[in-house]
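Field notebook, page 394. I keep forgetting to write these up properly, so this time I am using the form the group agreed on. The chain and the ligand, flavin-adenine dinucleotide, are recorded exactly as supplied. Prediction of the bound pose follows.
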Amino acid sequence: MPKPANPTPDFFGFADLLDDGERAELAAMRDCLEAEIKPLANDAWDRAEFPFEAIEKIAKLGLAGYHYPEYGDGRPRSELFSGFLNLELNRVDPSLAVFAGVHNGLAMGSIHGGGDQEQRDRWLPDMAAMRTIGAFALTEPEGGSDVAGGMRTTARRDGDTWVLNGAKRWIGNGTFADVVVVWARDTADGNVKGFVVHQGTPGFTATKIEGKIALRTVQNADITLDEVRVPEADRLQRINSFRDTAAVLARTRGGVAWQALGVAVRAYELAREYAVERVQFGKPIGAFQMIQDLLVKILGNVTAMFGMVVRLNQLTAAGRAGAEQAALAKAFTTTRMRECVAWARELFGGNGIVLDYEIAKFFADAEAVYSFEGSREMNTLIVGKSITGHSAFA
Ligand SMILES: Cc1cc2nc3c(=O)[nH]c(=O)nc-3n(C[C@H](O)[C@H](O)[C@H](O)COP(=O)(O)OP(=O)(O)OC[C@H]3O[C@@H](n4cnc5c(N)ncnc54)[C@H](O)[C@@H]3O)c2cc1C
């Protein structure tokens, strides 16, 4: 009897590093995501509309509170568990994973890292329960990769309030988020500061970016700020310069590396399943050497990505991961992810470009994951500076 096929994308058993309780919790979470979120995902992606019913379902899973146990269910989770959870969410739908990541990583992370205790206590309980949804507005129409140096949005102090002026681009959840963390340069001292702006504040306008070919469910917005007044109490009190903004990004960048792994894992699963089912020339295509070559190349990439992100989270847990490690993980995994989705799509032939077979969505979504949170070039330059001592940004 031939040995049965081994379908696991975790070929080296990285999940064995979790404890039994974590593995059980993850399996339950996966079942819920498959049952509750997956059925909404493709239709929402096709229509490029956000499925608002997903918020309650994601909230019920407690996903937003995991990183901040004092505001969630009170039970701290390991770094490794958070990584695997991120993987699972992306395996089901990268767009909804980005919705959640912007909310709990970028927006809640900015308030948790940059707010004082009163501000944390004011916003985070409702955000952890997803009664309040967050967005993070850093990128500008003229300032993407060079947003630190090129930030044009200004904040002018006027007594107990600040007056914001400028424009932001690509802001995930921006059309409907209740609170948007807006980054702006103080006209007095030239430093970047963070402000929590409520949707509906006079002068704040968010317009959906139409016509995206990737992460279509994510509602990205162009935002204009025209004399938007924000009380001093809503300025993040522990943000003093762009260095503090970069600290939030260094943490979420590691999350994007896990996201890339989730996309690649799903591409592998879909490709392997298709290869053993699709028959040509009287045999499953998975029996052909060149198809096995595609599958094994994807699995090799997935396994290398696992090794890097698992170790990254172990280093994070030990307080030993720096921005350079997160940057290398983001650049490496997103590049490997892009190869994986292309090989997987190729394996599907014509069916690889139809949404019904799912791989087309992952193929397209990978493009956005490759470019955001620092493009491959930007993350390469961060690592390049670290290993040579020379900055090559400009
Ligand atoms: C789907 C999606 C969601 C996003 N969500 C958010 C969000 O929620 N909040 C937010 O603030 N931003 C968000 N972004 C913005 C994202 O972070 C930026 O798109 C990204 O930082 C790149 O900036 P840019 O698009 O302006 O490209 P540019 O900076 O114009 O870069 C264009 C190209 O030039 C390259 N390049 C630039 N400078 C150099 C250099 N010195 N050397 C070599 N190559 C260089 C880049 O790598 C890239 O390939 C999102 C973007 C997307 C696509």
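OBSERVATIONS:
- The mean pLDDT is 96.
- The chain has three domains: 14-128, 134-239, 243-388.
FOLLOW-UP: compare against the apo run.
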